[in-house]
Write a structure and sequence with these properties.
The chain is α/β, with parallel strands linked by helices and about 375 residues long. The chain folds into 2 domains: about 250 residues, Type I PLP-dependent aspartate aminotransferase-like (Major domain) (Aspartate Aminotransferase, domain 2, 3-Layer(aba) Sandwich), CATH 3.40.640; about 120 residues, Aspartate Aminotransferase, domain 1 (Alpha-Beta Complex), CATH 3.90.1150. Helix content is about 40%, strand content about 15%. It is built from 15 helices and 13 strands. It has a 7-stranded mixed β-sheet with strand order 1-9-8-5-4-2-3, sandwiched between helices. Strands 7-6-11 form a 3-stranded antiparallel β-sheet, with no helix packed on it. Helix 3 runs parallel beside helix 9 and helix 4 packs across helix 5. The longest helix has about 30 residues. The chain is globular and about 65 Å long. It starts with a helix and ends with a helix. The relative contact order is 0.15. It binds pyridoxal-5'-phosphate.
């Protein structure tokens, strides 16, 4: 959970500066009382960082998924495909607009299985949401090919892999539209918040307007006289979140590098003894979480016990599996989709996820890897 782990004077100085500059906390208007538009700056810097044409800041990753779905014209009764290893936010965003979530399996990447995706497409499928779980890209080459063949749009849920790449492209640049989250547990954080990225001007126009009650944000018009043609909702973020977000964004590469050093300690030793999570070819991961499989229950339990004793914990596998596998979501999904999630649940039950924390030293990870290796 590195974003909050690296909060220091830079974030607090940025906040104090905002108050000294006039303390306008709203993203729009109040031109005479402010020196800067921090939300707009955060969006520009963020788009530039990931080589995207457009970025729109919103109040959460969940809101970002919902607005992205609406921008693609997904509506009541449509089907939207996503995956069984996930977070409930994706399902909630689909349900919130009256669409139906369709669940597909994950493969050993622990991301969307292209074969399972292909089998699940129907005439009602209007969008596909691959989720880049825990720092690793989905097999976007295969997923995009299937989507293009069937003329279905793709939203990348990149809430858990900000900064990861496939080939030369950052995640969020591969589908039509992509989203990230800045909640408390993400690679970079401003408490709550999200960003929507796209290279499509029409989609950007929709998300900009929809997140702000449909206002068109005409620069030449005073705020109170702004025009609109659609209604939307309030999914704005504040200037306070944006000043923190800008500082955190400037730390992202450093965070990934520091995570990499810890991750490598585990990877180099444990790859000799255990089956590791598959990493798709040509990907640059964020080293957020180290995941490996142990089929033998006895050995797996010994490793989990060790991780808990050493206070590393096991992040969502198995700690919070019920939060991250749709086999447990009968409160939101119909029974057919819950049942379809069982193969993924069975696979996840053999996996262990070690969180990479910058509060633990590289040496601690080295010692840990040797201890886990001995259990095998
Ligand atoms: C994969 C995934 N999608 C969406 C979200 C939702 O993000 P937020 O908490 O900003 O609404 C999360 C947050 O945990 C997530 O992990």
């Amino acid at each position: 959970m590195p974003g909050w782990e690296v909060i220091d004077k830079k974030e607090s100085n940025a906040l104090q500066k905002l108050f000294k500059e006039g303390g306008v906390l709203f993203a729009h208007g109040f031109n005479k009382f402010r020196k800067k538009y921090h939300v707009r700056e955060f969006e520009k810097l963020s788009a530039r960082k990931f080589n995207m044409k457009f970025a729109q800041a919103v109040s959460s990753g969940t809101a970002a998924i919902k607005i992205a779905l609406l921008s693609l014209g997904v509506k009541r009764g449509d089907e939207v495909i996503t995956q069984a290893f996930n977070f409930i936010a994706t399902i909630e965003a689909i349900l919130d607009i009256g669409a139906k979530p369709i669940i597909v399996d994950v493969d050993k990447t622990l991301n969307m299985c292209p074969k399972s995706l292909k089998r699940s497409i129907t005439k009602k499928t209007k969008a596909i949401i691959p989720v880049h779980m825990l720092g690793v890209p989905a097999k976007m080459g295969a997923i995009m090919k299937i989507a293009k063949d069937k003329k279905i749009k793709v939203i990348e849920d990149n809430c858990e892999a900000m900064g990861a790449k496939l080939g030369k492209k950052y995640l969020c640049a591969i589908g039509e539209i992509g989203v990230v989250s800045f909640d408390f547990s993400k690679s970079i954080t401003c408490g709550e918040g999200g960003m929507i990225y796209t290279n499509n001007k029409k989609l950007f126009k929709f998300v900009r307007e929809y997140h702000d009650h449909g206002h068109e944000n005409n620069i030449k018009l005073p705020r109170g006289m702004d025009t609109r043609t659609i209604y939307g909702f309030n999914y704005r973020i504040t200037e306070m979140q944006a000043v923190v977000g800008k500082v955190q964004l400037s730390k992202l590469d450093k965070i990934i590098n520091l995570q990499k050093k810890r991750y490598k300690e585990l990877n180099n030793v444990l790859k000799k003894k255990y089956e590791l999570r598959e990493i798709p070819k040509n990907s640059k991961i964020t080293f957020d979480t180290f995941i490996f499989f142990i089929k033998n229950k006895n050995i797996r339990n010994k490793v989990i016990k060790l991780l808990n004793r050493k206070k590393f914990g096991t992040k969502n596998l198995p700690d919070a599996i019920k939060w991250h596998c749709s086999a447990f979501w009968d409160h939101a999904l119909d029974s057919k989709e819950v049942k379809k999630s069982i193969p993924t649940k069975n696979l996840l039950n053999t996996a262990i996820a070690i969180p990479i924390s910058l509060k633990r030293s590289i040496k601690e990870y080295r010692n840990l890897s040797n201890q886990i290796s001995k259990i095998a």
